[in-house]
Amino acid sequence: MISGKKLNDYISVDCVVFGFDFEKLNVLVVERTLSDDSGKVEFSDLTLTGNHIYEDETIVEAADRILFDLTGLYDIYLEQFKTFASPDRLKKENDRKWLLHDGRNPDKRIVSIGFFALLATQKVTLEWKGRNVKWMPIGEVKELAFDHNLILEEALKALRNKLLHEPIGFELLPDKFTLSQLQKVYEIILDTTFDKRNFRKKVARMKYLIPLEEKQKGVAHKPARLYLFSREVYELTHKEILNFIV
């Protein structure tokens, strides 16, 4: 908590931070451990990244703060996708213990606003700050705290829908990338495969995909040409629909 500032006990922000490492889609998770007075661990599990909002900040400012606290980065792609307010959000035994330990009433409803964020994993060094924060492949996520499995599921739906209509997949790639890496992003997130030739015909229509006079370096295979996403050109082309039909 920032000194002198008060958190709102009943409004929180949960951020589903997606990252791509060229092979799989990952989500950022935080280890949550509760110990008794003797130091004995009562339980240890995983949560998504999140926190309560300060009384004097907007929910977007809260989401930006949470992401900066974990990554040290501003200007991360961030999308609000849903509000979670079920009266059963906090009914699991470990969640109630955690809230009581944190000085909160587990019988009070906490409303959480869900955001998803997109990061190229190689662009960020996770901040420790007393917590075990790590990337986990989406397919390996088991039970999370609170209703975070539901939040993750809804975030993935929102990401897939957005990906079909706006070029947000570039947010998961380094500044310079190959067409194969771009195709991999779409295939993994949409859980499908594309014919290489057809995919390249479609991306050739993207005026904002700029070919560079550069190729990959330090690879065992034949170096592929590198490309760049131009946000300026994208804005000028009126955000044309990608229209990837699965």
Could you please describe the fold and organization of this structure?
It comes from Saccharicrinis carchari. InterPro entries: NUDIX_hydrolase-like_dom_sf (IPR015797), NUDIX_hydrolase_dom (IPR000086), WH-like_DNA-bd_sf (IPR036388), WH_DNA-bd_sf (IPR036390), WHD_NrtR (IPR054105). By secondary structure, this protein is an alpha+beta fold. It has 2 domains: 7-163, Nucleoside Triphosphate Pyrophosphohydrolase, CATH 3.90.79; 174-236, Arc Repressor Mutant, subunit A, CATH 1.10.10. The protein is built from 6 helices and 10 strands, in the order ββββαβαββαβααββα. The chain has helices at residues 59-71, 93-101, 148-163, 179-190, 196-203, 231-236; strands at 7-20, 25-35, 41-47, 49-54, 77-84, 111-120, 133-137, 176-177, 209-215, 225-229. Strands 1, 2, 3, 4, 5, 6 and 7 form a 7-stranded mixed β-sheet that branches. Strand 1 (7-20) and strand 2 (25-35) form a beta hairpin. The N and C termini lie far apart (45 Å).
